[in-house]
Write a structure and sequence with these properties.
Shape: globular
Order of helices and strands: HHEEEHEEE
CATH architecture: 2-Layer Sandwich
CATH class: Alpha Beta
CATH superfamily: HORMA domain
Strand order of the largest sheet: 3-5-6-2-1-4
Number of helices: 3
Largest sheet: 6 strands, antiparallel
Number of strands: 6
Number of domains: 1
Distance between the termini: 68 Å
Length: about 170
């Protein structure tokens, strides 16, 4: 008699990446001095859609846009760009310290600011119930400050950047 064991590493990688992406979003929002209540209300829907699109490799980017609602202008934006075929060694890694350090260096968002979370997928991706189209704020004179690959699992990595004016 023989026993076979199969481990679905893709499922583990997707679960790990989705969990850590959501944790990154939470760290950005809380660290920036923004109210996390809106995120907690959207958590399950966001996590479901992110997991689904990671599994099908349709997820391209998760962004947190920080904006001034009365002036209708972007203050800053965090991008988490998904890289498939990263060629990793199969390990799982998450380092949130560079996010905290960037927030500490740049400071919190002005008090009257709000945020929204954008999840960008390939045009051919399946729809996620409760999600719709949303136009991004114009990044105009904002410049990216790349933090690098802070998260990876299996053959997928996440490249983090923070966009700030000037």
């Amino acid at each position: 008699m023989s026993t076979r064991t199969y481990i679905d590493t893709k499922a583990y990688s997707v679960a790990f990446l989705a969990d850590k992406l959501m944790y990154s979003v939470k760290e950005i929002i809380r660290g920036s001095g923004l109210d996390p209540v809106k995120l907690s209300q959207q958590w399950n829907t966001l996590e479901h859609g992110i997991s689904r699109w990671l599994h099908t490799q349709d997820l391209m980017r998760v962004s947190v846009e920080i904006f001034h609602p009365r002036r209708n202008r972007l203050v800053g934006r965090w991008d988490m760009e998904i890289i498939y075929g990263y060629g990793g060694d199969g390990t799982m890694h998450a380092d949130m310290n560079p996010i905290r350090q960037m927030i500490e260096r740049e400071g919190q968002a002005p008090e009257e600011c709000d945020y929204r979370i954008l999840v960008v997928a390939k045009p051919t991706a399946d729809e996620v119930h409760g999600w719709g189209d949303l136009n991004e704020y114009d990044i105009g004179q904002h410049k990216p400050r790349r933090l690098g690959y802070l998260l990876w699992a299996g053959d997928t990595a996440v490249d983090y950047s923070y966009w700030k004016k000037g």
